[in-house]
Design brief:
The structure is a single chain. By secondary structure, the chain is α+β, with helices and mostly antiparallel strands.
Length: 175
């Protein structure tokens, strides 16, 4: 019963604390504009580096925070989509289901994107996917009851990180 697990546990705690700080900073950056709100940002964008390294090895005694069973398996995550015309051009309105608003199961972002593409095949562009994943990850936290997530094909494809830094709206605010 030595303390051989203590350094791993402390490292894991440090990782969790860093992830929590990152989440708070990104939410704080997104909050003033609520992922597509028309009000101007009150804070400057936050640049965050997300580590792609593997987490420390788990011991069998450590509890897992990741659900092992998808509570929304088999349920649709996207209710419907609607193409509309806006001041700047075409806009795809994506309406998530209650399950789509609540799930945190790994991989549901991609499952939901595939549902969007099944309903709106013309949305299959890198910039639209980045906007969707940004809304999936952040708009659900910042503005969980927003009726639709608005994706615009005219927005530049700048990569996911830059899309997040632009509060899901690269190329300018939503109008």
């Amino acid at each position: 019963m030595g303390h051989s697990n203590r350094p791993t546990r402390l490292s894991r705690r440090a990782d969790v604390a860093r992830q929590a700080r990152t989440t708070v900073l990104l939410c704080a950056a997104l909050l003033p504009t609520a992922c597509g709100s028309s009000s101007p940002a009150a804070v400057s964008p936050v640049t965050t580096t997300i580590s792609a390294t593997s987490p420390p090895a788990r011991t069998s005694a450590a509890p897992s925070n990741t659900p092992t069973v998808d509570p929304y398996a088999g349920q649709p995550l996207i209710d419907h989509t609607d193409w509309t015309d806006a001041v700047d051009g075409a806009r795809l309105l994506v309406y998530p289901t209650p399950a789509g608003r609540q799930t945190t199961f790994p991989g549901t972002d991609e499952r939901a994107w595939q549902e969007v593409l099944a309903q709106a095949p013309d949305a299959d562009t890198p910039g639209m996917r980045d906007q969707f994943i940004c809304h999936w990850t952040w708009a659900r936290l910042v503005e969980p009851d927003k009726p639709s997530w608005n994706l615009e094909p005219w927005r530049p494809a700048v990569g996911y990180q830059a899309t997040v830094e632009a509060r899901c709206n690269p190329g300018g605010p939503e109008r």
